[in-house]
Amino acid sequence: MDPNIKTQEAVKAEEFRKMIEVEVLKIIKDLAEKGQTPQERIQELAQLVLDLIKPGMNLEELYSNAVKLDDRHSELAPVVFKVMKEYEEVYEKKALTHVNQLIKSGNFDQAQDMVKKVLKFKISN
Predict the structure, then answer these.
(1) How do residues 95-116 score in pLDDT, each as one tens digit?
(2) 24, 76 in Cβ contact below 8 A?
(3) Which of 33, 66, 72, 108 is the most buried (most CB within 10 A)?
(4) Domain positions in the chain
(5) What tens digit of pLDDT does each residue of 21-31 get?
(6) How far apart are CA 45 and CA 73, in angstroms?
């Protein structure tokens, strides 16, 4: 594998992670400023993000963990929605473009494997 591709993927994952963290921080800040959410709850939200969203994770790991943020903390539902929308708009389309390129170049087995991977990922989330 080309090391530049690995680096590009790592950069994209880092940007995605930062986007998630910024969105969560906006919600935490808003909750703290309104003063209607107990400090313990705000700390739980922050700890959950630290536990699930970690530096060095790849895009799939970040996405898989990010969609769990609102499982017990409904305040984070807007973040999950944004993450899902961002992931599908940007990264899923790239996978489909890659599948098209594989088909056009006659790499049907690789294209089939890629489609299976995308579908498996979507079904598991």
Answers:
(1) 788 888 889 999 899 888 778 7
(2) yes
(3) 66
(4) 3-124
(5) 999 999 999 99
(6) 7
